[in-house]
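Chapter summary example.
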Amino acid sequence: MSNEQDSIAKIFAAQITELAERSMKRQEPEWTDFLDPEAREQAQAILAWVTGTRFQTFGGYSKSERARLVIYPDYYLTETIEPALVFLEITVNSLEPLTHRDYLGALMGLGLKREKIGDLLVNNESCQVIMHPDLAEYVILNLDKVGNTKAKIKLIEPEQLNLPQMRTKEIRTTVASLRLDALAALGFGDSRTKMAREIKAERLKVNWKTVNDPDYQVNLGDIISMRGRGRVILQELTGRSKKGRLGVILVRFL
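The structure predicted for these 254 residues follows.
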């Protein structure tokens, strides 16, 4: 880890610890900003060392990538915690389909920080946004375009979310071992040599943590992700062949 990365990690740990201490002092829930899976895992590891507190995750739907943690005293009545989220729908009438980048750019063009915005669910003519509730009114009043296309925006209920249908591909094969380079090569359809280079260049993550060792041993249920290429899960081990190779089932999310 570089000095800069170490500094960022220490600042993040201090922020999470401060939220936990504030929750205990005020005897009420405290919320993080939206965190990606890696940051949530780091936060949870930090909170595991803070006695007297618990936490829950809220992202708007069960498979959200970005989500907020709520930290609260362990005696707090969780039934009283309301998700600190708001749901907006941006509708456009564009000849060309707009992308996730277009909508995110429009939101951040208003001065919003990325950590205040959760998942964006993009459809043909609209985008549903999960975000920090304090910013909803500001966005509704000020967002009138996405790129050069006029946009309409309104509040929606969480039940109105058009949740993505994840396409998957099942890969049944055998491997000599559960090395990361071997499984990633099979999952993403590249050569093992090329995948080893990608791993050493820190372009792959396992369970949202960067791994730079091609020999890293993957465990059942681990998620291998690669920027721009999606995710692969080691879903099942099917036993050994007569030649001693391991049977595996990989699932790639497309």
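To summarize the output: The two ends are 31 Å apart (CA to CA).
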